Amino acid sequence: MLPHLDAAHNLARWLTGNQADAQDVVQESYLRAFRFFEGYKGGDSKAWLLSIVRNTCRTWLRQQKRDMASVPFDEIAHSGDRVAPDPEQSMAERQKIGLLLTCIEMLPPDFREVLILRELEEMSYQQIAAVTGVPIGTVMSRLSRARRRLEELAASRDMEAAR
Question: Whole-structure pTM over 0.85, yes or no?
Answer without folding.
Answer: no
